[in-house]
Amino acid sequence: MKILMVCLGNICRSPLAEGILKSKATTYQIFVDSAGTSAYHVDNQPDERSIIVAEKHGINISNQRARKFIAADFDNFDIIYAMDESNFHDIVKLSRNNSDKQKVRMILNEIHPNKNNSVPDPYYGGNEGFENVFQMLDEACEIIIKKYAI
Ligand code: 4NP
Description:
This protein is an alpha/beta fold. It has a single domain (2-148), classed as Rossmann fold, CATH 3.40.50. The protein is 40% helix and 13% strand. The protein contains 6 helices and 4 strands; from the N terminus they run βαβααβααβα. Strands 2-1-3-4 form a 4-stranded parallel beta sheet, with helices on both faces. Strand 1, helix 1 (13-24) and strand 2 (31-36) form a beta-alpha-beta unit. Bound molecules: 4-nitrophenyl phosphate (4NP).
């Protein structure tokens, strides 16, 4: 199972989602990566506040580097999780067919099916926003690992 986590910058939310899911997946056959719909931060490390909140929970995400989501990702991944509705629509815009489209999901729908809730963008807020994002993603990833890890 190959899973891609996607947000806008690939420096705050999706690097956390990638790190959290990987940390739960160590003994399972699962490949996890992340990307951004924008190219604003390509090649950058995750935001320091994401690195710190992950570290607080025993997860090292400092080796990740941001990259942009591309249409070829539809070929390389089974599930593509969007962090918010704007990411969802930007990803779907790049889909080439129905099979591509069906791979795209809202990550918080794993917790609250069909509600289409968004993981709030913590970029312009304080540190508590990053802890809040961590907790939401941890809950979603716990469900994901139980559903898809073989
Ligand atoms: P992310 O957060 O999408 O969770 O990585 C953001 C990072 C950067 C910007 C916006 C959101 N930005 O506008 O530069």
